[in-house]
Amino acid sequence: VPMVAPGNVQVHVINSTLAKVHWDPVPLKTVRGHLQGYKVYYWKVQSLSRRSRRHVEKKILTFRGNKTFGMLPGLEPYSSYKLNVRVVNGKGEGPASPDKVFNTPEGVPSSPSFLKITNPTLDSLTLEWGSPTHPNGVLTSYTLKFQPINNTHELGPLVEIRIPANESSLILKNLNYSTRYKFYFNAQTSVGSGNQITEEAVTIMDE
């Protein structure tokens, strides 16, 4: 098997899900056989938004021939990763380069995990929601938009409310009685807004 590990491993993080890794080629005489390529082992150490460690699943990408760089796609935003590089000949892999640590930046969050509308009264509705399963960063706020829908399914004026990220419920007051409303709800990080979820609910007709 090859005798030495690739040197001078460098990681260039391109965006929240993509990084580029560079390495110096090993001297050909240390390959001790036919140079087949280089393997990059990489794995997520932890999410930076939830400090929970989990089962580490190592991923491997093979770059054929005498390439000295490769792309790592499909990374998770706002996470800490480690990687190392090994040279491969027909017999197997050489030793691993020292582990290199890199962090991906924040991305936009997934949609809120749920939106429930309860306690209808003549002029109010209560909204409850769950935070995104994948925050992909630090949540900065939620945005709620809503509008009335009349009997011919025409949409009325759209109202928009910003809600602090640590809230999980809201009572909407001063609504019209016996009116159907449509709600659009999403979460934000400093990077931008995630996908929205929509719900509809009706205020009651009379007490």
TrEMBL record:
Annotated PANTHER family: CTX-RELATED TYPE I TRANSMEMBRANE PROTEIN, NEURAL CELL ADHESION MOLECULE L1-LIKE PROTEIN
For this entry, the protein name equals NRCAM protein
Q: Which UniProt keywords apply?
A: Disulfide bond, Immunoglobulin domain, Repeat
Task: Give a Gene Ontology cellular component term annotated to this protein.
Answer: neuron projection
Q: Which InterPro entries match?
A: FN3_dom, FN3_sf, Ig-like_fold, Neural/epithelial_adhesion
PROSITE patterns per the UniProt record, alphabetical: FN3
Q: Domain Fibronectin type-III spans what residues?
A: 5-107, 111-207
Give the species.
Rhabdornis inornatus
